[in-house]
Write a sequence for this structure.
């Protein structure tokens, strides 16, 4: 039984691993998720989907208690041999719901909440306390990168023997089935130098920094065009602010925000350079996707990003839009630099194969239930 609340990266992770799990027919999967999930994506991947409307991202005693009771009811009804909880909210709900039932339980934070930049010290301590309190109720905690494991140990969440690093991975077959977008489809000039970013328009992904970087790049590269694939998936406040910033910087004619799309990798075909300027990142699944598509990367040197990118990209400090702009200009001007980055990407992307991710998960699940 997979328990998940947060869409976005978690949803993509689940679709990827469940697709690959088809080769292991001994495992049957049930998805318990929030109403924010696109359940059509899981057709043919899971035996059943149970949507719990009460499961919300925001802290709410009423909703959290109700969703915990409903998840507990589902656990008793389905009696799964293994429960796999995804993200901190679903992880807390799933572990509390399983108290006393004692089904085998695996937890994956998909990025620790206490690493969120901009959180108050009080909130960070709260997240740490919750994770420490609930850690004993997981048989294993999966870390999506070596950085995540080191972070858990640094914050004394649990002992090292409870932590298992299983890298996130991408499904190579997904790229074979993609339907690449043409520049003409998006109204982008064919001769444009396109700087792209894929991700939600949130403080974490730093779209404001992307716009500041874009202004500097445009001054040096007149035919530069900027493509942001994503949306804020919420009130619209962040997107409104970003669009206002784009207008103020006089970049409107050289900028496109696609809004929410179900197939973001289709848009990578238009990129000349790919960016991830996040302020914090538990992994950054889009990075190996960029690598597979042979798009030179400029990303921030925060959290798990340097672990994923290695030397196959250019790293800059968080919020340093000037260095990001200079790096992009260097890739534009220096063909050898671009070719060397792509050469290294081709090698490094092999570390992040979803087939390996699922093989290691299947091994873990088999050990837990002694198949």
């Amino acid at each position: 039984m997979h328990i998940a609340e947060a869409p976005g990266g978690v949803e993509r992770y689940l679709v990827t691993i469940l697709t690959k799990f088809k080769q292991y027919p001994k495992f049957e999967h049930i998805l318990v998720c929030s109403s924010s999930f696109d359940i059509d994506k899981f057709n043919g991947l899971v035996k059943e989907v149970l949507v719990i409307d009460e499961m919300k991202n925001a802290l709410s005693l009423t909703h959290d208690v109700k969703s915990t009771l409903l998840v507990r009811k589902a656990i008793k009804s389905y009696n799964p041999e293994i429960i796999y909880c995804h993200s901190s909210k679903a992880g807390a709900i799933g572990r509390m719901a399983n108290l006393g039932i004692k089904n085998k339980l695996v937890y994956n934070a998909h990025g620790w909440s206490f690493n969120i930049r901009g959180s108050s010290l009080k909130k960070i301590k709260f997240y740490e306390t919750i994770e420490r309190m609930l850690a004993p109720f997981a048989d294993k905690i999966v870390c999506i990168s070596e950085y995540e494991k080191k972070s858990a140990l640094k914050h004394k969440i649990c002992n090292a023997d409870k932590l298992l690093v299983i890298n996130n991975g991408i499904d190579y077959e997904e790229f074979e089935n993609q339907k690449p977008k043409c520049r003409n489809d998006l109204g982008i000039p064919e001769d444009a130098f396109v700087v792209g970013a894929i991700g939600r328009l949130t403080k974490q992904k730093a779209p404001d920094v992307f716009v500041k970087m874009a202004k500097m790049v445009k001054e040096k590269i007149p035919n530069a065009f900027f493509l942001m694939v994503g949306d804020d998936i919420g009130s619209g406040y962040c997107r409104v602010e970003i669009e206002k910033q784009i207008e103020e910087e006089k970049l409107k004619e050289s900028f496109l925000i696609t809004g929410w799309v179900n197939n973001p990798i289709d848009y990578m075909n238009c990129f000349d350079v790919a960016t991830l300027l996040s302020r914090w990142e538990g992994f950054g699944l889009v990075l190996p996707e960029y690598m597979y598509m042979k798009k030179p990367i400029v990303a921030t040197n925060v959290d798990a990003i340097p672990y994923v990118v290695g030397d196959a990209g250019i790293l800059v400090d968080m919020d340093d839009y000037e260095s990001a702009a200079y790096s992009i200009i260097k890739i534009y001007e220096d063909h050898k630099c671009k070719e060397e980055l792509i050469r290294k990407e081709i090698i490094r992307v092999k570390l992040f194969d979803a087939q390996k991710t699922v093989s290691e998960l299947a091994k873990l699940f088999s050990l837990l239930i002694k198949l």
